[in-house]
Amino acid sequence: MKLYSYFRSSASYRVRIALNLKGVPFEYVPVHLTRGGGEHLAAPFRKLNPQALVPVLEDGEEALAQSLAIIEYLDETRPQPPLLPKAPAARARVRALSLTIACEIHPLNNLKVLNYVTNVLGVGEDARRAWYHYWIAEGLRALEARLATERETGKFCHGDAPTLADCCLVPQLFNARRFKCELSGYPTLLAIEKNCQALEAFQRAAPDRQPDFEKA
Ligand SMILES: N[C@@H](CCC(=O)N[C@@H](CS)C(=O)NCC(=O)O)C(=O)O
After folding, report:
1. Which end of the chain is more exposed for a tag (fewer CB within 10 A), N or C?
2. pTM of this prediction?
3. 85-105 pLDDT, tens per residue?
4. Ligand 1 atom closest to Cα of residue 53
């Protein structure tokens, strides 16, 4: 298996966690998102993923895009340990928590969106930071409200074992810290993150453990 990844891409980070949780060895193929204008925008990578986004997971003949689709593929092809619960309502809850991050927070703060806001709309540095912080806070507040009150929450987002939702949460919190967002208002998220970070699968997936890691 080959994972096309960038060390601080949170969507790639999600898949790295899932691969580690499943115990699947993989070859790490770095794709630099800024060097030379972005290796992901060049023709060879676009051929692999016309959306020009990491991650891409190659499994034999298959080249899979979209981190959540990749993780569900891994869960279907390598069922242990499961990253989605069996019961339909529980599966829907885990997917909803994951999509709150992957569809409602992350896309608004992705590199191409921030570049558009800056380069095309001419938004200055302060407004760009405000935009980032606003969408992070809006999403994390909703997650905190759910996770702090719902009985299904355990040591992890859903029960006492990591799921797809934890694969999304930890990278999003990493990203928020990188952009200096205030996180003290989310004690439940931070407690779950701590439980995740105690696991080797999460530790090995961290940006600073990747071969293409660069100090900021
Ligand atoms: N929904 C996609 C998002 C993928 C994505 O946005 N990847 C980012 C890095 S986290 C990327 O490649 N950005 C390049 C760009 O914005 O130009 C997924 O979950 O895989």
Report:
1. C
2. 0.97
3. 999 999 999 999 999 999 999
4. 12
